[in-house]
């Protein structure tokens, strides 16, 4: 009796292992590179098609993902967000290391095809320290609008890249979605 159970178990495990090997050889993992950056989750290539993680593609493209449970449909929204940085009335993009001054961020948003409830703007320094510039609930429900932060006093203490990030919160969600970035370079004097 024990021999039969052992034989049956060996047969089942052999079939299962062979099936897994076949499935692995029928589909291949592929590297996916977007704008020079490799995605964390590899794609899967099978039957002449490549399958990718929608969430990772959306994050890479700085898009908003909306999942409709009722229709089992995923929709990606990519609003156009153009940011301008102003020191007084002068647009800037690069600074000298050690500069400290007040600036504000202007953002032009268009092609917004979903309702949002809030926006947030932050800056990350070369040492990965993040400072919130401004966060605000939004009651505007249209496809385009302008957004301006209050002045922020900021010191560019280190040479390197400073990244301004613009986030949106989709109405009915608690998650912030990154939709745009702008880089300031602080150069050594």
TrEMBL record:
Keywords: Signal. It holds the Pfam family Cu_amine_oxidN1. InterPro entries: Cu_amine_oxidase-like_N, Mao_N_sf. Residues 1-23 form the signal peptide. The keyword Signal applies. Residues 34-116 form the Copper amine oxidase-like N-terminal domain. The keyword Signal applies. This is Copper amine oxidase. It comes from Paenibacillus lignilyticus. The lineage of its organism: Bacteria, Bacillati, Bacillota, Bacilli, Bacillales.
